[in-house]
């Protein structure tokens, strides 16, 4: 079977500069079946919950107040409602919710396959499992003390994405077990009904005929009716993330001037500085760049401890200077305020469309898990 991948919306990051730049990924050749790909995508989808937290609605024209305690902006709240990745409650309550959604998808697949004359047995073992990984860092990650001890957390490998709530998706072999007892023609028909037919286009599965699994997945995804407003949301988040508005440029310039005085003449923005250290650490780890954001890494490489120590010293010096300069120009508060204001401007212009899209998505998901 060919590997299947989907194009999914990138989650909007809370507009606060204590967020971490993405860790360079290790480039790997596709080597999983389509069913494994679907499970992996499910696990990836829900990891966004780690960066999105709950907050109550606040007055529409107070962008600085919105998310003041939670760090979630007004447009991010709508994004969470539309995509269903805004979960509250205990770990056990969220696990129960994931289990309910999984059962609904499996039951839908079984009914869909039955309508085409096939027997599909739901697999209770292939589910998303939630676990909690303790953070070994005991100091406030947003403090100067953290910068003095760990820098950005790169060389010490204590990045926040490695800790907290972790979601894993178990592999399901049920379909292959069922197909093993079929003739070649029967297995082909079964696979087409389950996974659909199509082809890989630039690594993305272009399904000319969606299968039952695609339809089950779609139960918990926004439908095409509100695609236009979702695209506009994505464009707004991309514009905010680019920090290209005059106010963002001015704020970054103030920070950069402070960093020059601190001995870092190449520092343009806090995010770019952290990304540069992530890239440098990849080199220390024996990785080589193969494209934007992609690195080829040797699993048997042993880093030079001297180079690692030198990297740690440079990282800590830059992180301390970064902290001091952000404090000096009140960077985090102003940056968050600018981002929230742009989000609020979009919400004010498109509130009716956003509310309609959110309500439709919420009702769609609720009806899918109703017994």
Question: In summary, what is this structure?
Answer:
About 50% of the residues lie in helices and about 10% in strands.
Commentary on this structure:
By secondary structure, this protein is mostly helical. It has one domain (25-369). Helices cover 51% and strands 9% of the residues. The chain contains 12 helices and 7 strands. The chain has helices spanning 34-46, 74-83, 91-114, 144-150, 174-180, 184-195, 212-218, 227-242, 246-261, 270-284, 305-328, 331-369; strands spanning 25-26, 128-133, 164-169, 196-201, 204-210, 288-291, 294-296. The strands form 3 sheets. The chain has a 3-stranded mixed β-sheet, with no helix packed on it. A two-stranded antiparallel sheet has the order 2-3. Strands 4-5 form a two-stranded antiparallel sheet. The radius of gyration is 23 Å and the shape is globular. Mean pLDDT is 78; it is low at 1-11 and 13-68.
């Amino acid at each position: 079977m060919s590997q299947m991948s989907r194009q999914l919306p990138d989650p909007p990051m809370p507009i606060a500069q204590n967020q971490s730049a993405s860790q360079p990924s290790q480039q790997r050749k596709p080597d999983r079946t389509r069913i494994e790909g679907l499970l992996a995508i499910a696990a990836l989808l829900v990891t966004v919950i780690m960066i999105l937290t709950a907050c109550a609605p606040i007055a529409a024209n107070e962008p600085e107040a919105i998310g003041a305690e939670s760090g979630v902006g007004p447009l991010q709240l709508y994004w969470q409602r539309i995509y269903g990745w805004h979960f509250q409650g205990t770990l056990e309550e969220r696990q129960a919710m994931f289990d309910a959604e999984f059962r609904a998808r499996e039951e839908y697949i079984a009914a869909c396959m039955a309508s085409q004359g096939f027997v599909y047995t739901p697999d209770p073992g292939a589910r998303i499992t939630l676990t909690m990984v303790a953070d070994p860092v005991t100091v406030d990650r947003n403090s100067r003390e953290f910068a003095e001890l760990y820098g950005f957390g790169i060389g010490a490998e204590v990045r926040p994405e490695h800790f907290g709530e972790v979601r894993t998706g178990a592999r399901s072999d049920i379909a292959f077990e069922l197909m093993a007892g079929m003739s070649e023609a029967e297995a082909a028909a079964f696979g087409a009904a389950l996974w659909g037919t199509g082809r890989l286009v630039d690594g993305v599965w272009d399904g000319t005929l969606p299968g039952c699994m695609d339809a089950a997945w779609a139960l918990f995804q926004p439908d095409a009716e509100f695609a236009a407003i979702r695209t506009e949301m994505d464009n707004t988040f991309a514009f905010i993330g680019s920090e290209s508005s005059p106010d963002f440029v001015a704020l970054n310039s103030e920070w950069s001037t402070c960093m020059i005085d601190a001995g870092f003449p190449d520092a343009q923005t806090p995010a770019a500085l952290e990304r540069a250290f992530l890239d440098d650490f990849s080199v220390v780890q024996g990785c080589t760049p193969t494209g934007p954001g992609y690195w080829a890494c040797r699993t048997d490489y042993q880093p030079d401890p001297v180079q690692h120590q030198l990297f740690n010293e440079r990282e800590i010096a830059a992180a301390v200077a970064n902290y001091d300069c952000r404090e000096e120009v009140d960077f985090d508060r102003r940056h968050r305020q600018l981002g929230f204001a742009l989000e609020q401007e979009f919400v004010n212009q498109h509130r009716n469309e956003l509310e309609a899209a959110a309500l439709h998505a919420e009702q769609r998901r609720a009806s899918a898990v109703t017994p």
